[in-house]
Design a protein that fits this description.
Layout: H1 2-21, H2 26-34, H3 37-44, E1 52-56, E2 59-62, H4 63-72, H5 80-102, H6 109-131, H7 136-145, E3 156-164, H8 167-178, H9 184-191, E4 203-207, H10 209-216, H11 220-224, E5 236-238, E6 241-251, H12 264-287
Length: 288
């Protein structure tokens, strides 16, 4: 679920931020590195059972605990590097939490309320996943019934690009296009942008004007003005390369977007709304 990934990301960044601002145990991580910390953990990962793989004071992290954590996060395959990163982050969090307790920060009323809220909110989410797991169908059904809330705020266009590195070749291609000696499709198959993320060669998919500017620099605004089905009448020089641009299709601002077009924050918004609905349903059942 997106929520779980967000929790991990939040913990990681919060942890790093607080760690480097703290004055207490900055040297602890340095010492762990110098003492062969990485190499020691690589050896521990090869062992079986509930071996202790990290300890800060009386807090221990075992292999079984680590495996269980990734299990509840729906992570079936975890690399050795990811495990090592998590252990490092766990150690830093424990160090910071220990220092917070020494300063009695955990006893302040506001902090107590926040800690209680965070832990109980996460437990509630786990309970929902156990009893009324959110499915892709739930998310799509919610989207379909609230389509009016998801409207495209700016136009997007789908482009095909041909990019060459020298002016001589650009002039040659331009001559072929103007004399209609070759189709765009054949040119793209020969000179189109080829990257692993672009199986269709020159097709870069739908982009906003800012997205095209990332491809072509400020000249992207000029290229974005091309109408659907049109080819720019000249090559465009940008980023020390020569671009030929065709607009394959466009979608206007104000139109309802498709489920597949949802941004990550829109997806999270839907997921949170569905979770709230399921929460209300479960609470109703419990109170009956």
């Amino acid at each position: 679920m997106c929520f779980q990934n967000n929790i991990i990301t939040h913990v990681i960044f919060s942890c790093f931020f607080l760690f480097f601002l703290s004055c207490g145990d900055k040297q602890a991580l340095v010492n762990m590195r110098e003492d062969g910390y990485d190499e020691a953990f690589q050896e521990v990962y090869k062992q079986k059972g509930g071996k202790v793989i990290a300890q800060v004071g009386d807090k221990k992290l075992t292999e079984l605990m680590l495996s269980e954590f990734f299990y509840v996060m729906n992570r079936d395959k975890v690399t050795r590097e990811e495990k090592a990163d998590f252990v490092e982050q766990w150690i830093m969090i424990q160090i910071l939490a220990r220092e917070a307790r020494r300063e009695d920060l955990h006893k302040r009323m506001g902090n107590l309320l926040f800690l209680d809220l965070v832990s109980n909110e996460y437990l509630a989410r786990i309970y929902i996943d156990q009893h009324q797991k959110i499915t892709e169908k739930d998310l799509k059904d919610y989207f379909e019934s609230h389509k009016n809330q998801f409207v495209r705020k700016e136009p997007i266009k789908r482009f095909s690009l041909i990019v060459v590195a020298n002016r001589k070749k650009a002039i040659e291609i331009l001559g072929m296009l103007r004399k209609k000696k070759i189709t765009w499709e054949k040119l793209v198959s020969r000179y189109g942008v080829v990257e692993p993320s672009r199986p269709n060669k020159g097709d870069i998919g739908y982009v906003t004007i800012e997205g095209l500017k990332r491809e072509m620099g400020n000249k992207g605004a000029e290229a974005f003005a091309i109408g659907q089905g049109k080819i720019h009448d000249d090559y465009i020089v940008a980023k020390n390369q020569f671009f030929f641009v065709k607009c394959l299709s466009e979608k206007k601002a104000g139109e309802a977007i498709q489920y597949e077009e949802l941004s990550s924050w829109q997806y999270d918004k839907i997921e949170n709304a569905v979770r709230l609905e399921k929460m209300e349903q479960l609470v109703y059942k419990i109170k009956k």
